[in-house]
Amino acid sequence: MNNKKTVIRFFTIADYEEEEVWLHNQHKNGWKLMKMIPPCFFVFEKCTPEDVTYRLDYKNNTETSNYFQIFKDYGWEYIGQCIGWLYFRKSSSEIDSEQEGEIFSDNESRVDMINHVVKTRLLPITIIFLCCVLPNFLRSITDSDPIATVFTIIFSFLTILYIYLVIYCGLKLRKLKNKYSNN
Question: pTM score, two decimals?
Fold first, then answer.
């Protein structure tokens, strides 16, 4: 019997709440998260199905030992980090109130995290697109060299992918920021 499984699942920087729900459901189905391997590999270990709350925080390597101690003091188990995201879990049986099921003390902290994601992930992706992908795409469509056709196809795909991801993540992060700013 196989006690471990690796699942390929892609979440964008704006899908962290959906990722928490997905990890919760995996644990409910008897698979607890052991580690994440960038960019989209999740390693699970067979366990007794249990109602466990998963939470993600984005620190991008700015966390301190005090940061981890606070989580430990409140009963959160640190699982690991992946591309700036920190993964925590806590048995739902240990959660007596809605606030105990959250890692953020207030909505302002959530908004700060979203702003940090925008500044350190979305903005750099947009700059890479504008400085690297888009100019190369434009150069490839104006070049008459036969090899340029291959590059045109590659850069067309990258341009579409970047535009979609930047718009999707930007709109979703703005929606999340508005949701937590208005509460």
Answer: 0.88
